[in-house]
Specification:
Order of helices and strands: HHEHEEHHHHEH
Helix content: 40-55%
Structural class: alpha+beta
Distance between the termini: 22 Å
Strand content: 5-15%
Strand order of the largest sheet: 3-2-1-4
Number of helices: 8
Length: about 220
């Protein structure tokens, strides 16, 4: 018995119904929803690119304990691209940067891929490819979330060597935004794919039940 509001199965398997929904162009109402999904994914991709270059690991120190000087405090910050900035203390950042890495390159690449995957949802001439854009967004979002989670769990190890004293080192605001944006991107992409594959009422469905064979 068909679920209420769902097109009768008519002998079609679940896989066949999903494939039909996947390859059938959406209704104008549904297309507006996918355009919003694409805009959100593109925006999150831009955030990823920008904040991958900003502070990923930071630490605050008392100056007397950090450099043998009395009074005041100092802070050290390492960006996702490995550049070092300091405040309140004079440090040879060039020598420090020799021991840093640039994990933000990975999230920049994922951000650009996410923007590319969102284009079929936004550009009219590419909208016939929008189902593949959603699938690509889910895959990129999943890989991005795993990568960002690993970096977020160990910010000191992400930008350098965490085998030394990393007490007081925490995730910088850039890494926070990258992690949250990766989570939002994956959830948004999965939500868009769900909108595409969910059963639709007959009045709104983009496909019709095949006619029954003549008796």
């Amino acid at each position: 018995m068909a679920e209420q509001g769902q097109q009768p199965a008519g002998g079609l398997t679940t896989t066949q119904q999903l494939l039909i929904r996947f390859f059938t162009p959406p209704t104008p109402e549904a297309q507006k929803q996918f355009t919003v999904v694409g805009a959100v994914l593109a925006f999150l991709g831009v955030l990823l690119v920008i904040f991958s270059t900003l502070s990923w690991a930071s630490a605050d120190y008392e100056v007397h304990s950090f450099a043998g000087q009395g009074g005041g405090s100092a802070s050290v910050s390492v960006s996702g691209l490995g550049s070092v900035s300091t405040e309140g203390i004079d440090v040879d950042t060039d020598s420090v940067e020799e021991g840093t890495s640039a994990p933000g390159v990975w999230t920049i690449i994922f951000g650009l891929l996410l923007i590319g995957a969102s284009l079929p949802l936004l550009i009219g001439s590419l909208k016939k490819y929008f189902p593949w854009g959603l699938v690509a967004s889910v895959l990129v979002g999943f890989a991005l979330l795993i990568t960002a989670s690993v970096f977020f769990a160990d910010p000191a190890g992400a930008v350098g060597d965490s085998s030394g004293d990393t007490e007081g080192v925490g995730a910088g605001y850039g890494l926070w935004i990258v992690f949250l944006a990766s989570l939002a991107a994956f959830v948004t992409a999965v939500g868009g794919l769900f909108l595409l594959l969910r059963p639709q009422p007959a009045a709104q469905a983009g496909w019709q039940q095949p006619p029954a064979p003549a008796a």
